[in-house]
Amino acid sequence: MAHLKLENNSISPITQEIFDKTQKAFGFVPNMYKTMGANPALLDAYIYSYTSFRANAGFNATEQEVVFLTAAYENNCEYCVAAHSTLADMAKVPTEITDAIRNGAEIADPKLKQLSQLTRSLSLNRGIVPQEEVDAFLAVGYTEQHVLGILAGIAVKLISNYSNHITNPELEAPFTSRAWKK
């Protein structure tokens, strides 16, 4: 697999602002942000879409992590599976849910199972899914707006997962306890 060897000798004002806000909020700047920051359009698009998904997609914290983890699993992104497993732990998502996703297994909870299954299907099939899958998702209490919210989450993970594949950022200490390989 190809990997870029980025040299961030010059950081744009947009990237620096994101780094400063991230450092203040979390106490560190993730290596993923550092590699994405070599192109301010990429990092800015990621941060904007990530923030919007968290605030506007209509999912609670557990559901957000199910979408992110499922998409990262299907995209085979070791970095994001580890990071979102850690974030899920911090959000008190039951470990059996995150471990099921990390192992490619079904989630026991019927609603979260449908969320993960539709996320997986939309990811693998590039948005082309049978009506029966959407109907099964809607039948457990989600709405059509939630289907579109899944697409927003998949788009966020597409940016970060593909960027991580080509830049191979090192996993930081806060995420190593949940390191993952498919």
Automatic annotation (TrEMBL):
Coiled coil: none annotated. InterPro entries: AhpD-like (IPR029032), AhpD_core (IPR004675), CMD-like (IPR003779). Gene3D superfamilies: AhpD-like. GO terms for molecular function: peroxiredoxin activity. Residues 54-114 form the Carboxymuconolactone decarboxylase-like domain. SUPFAM superfamilies: AhpD-like. It comes from the Bacteria. This is Carboxymuconolactone decarboxylase family protein. It comes from Flavobacterium sandaracinum.
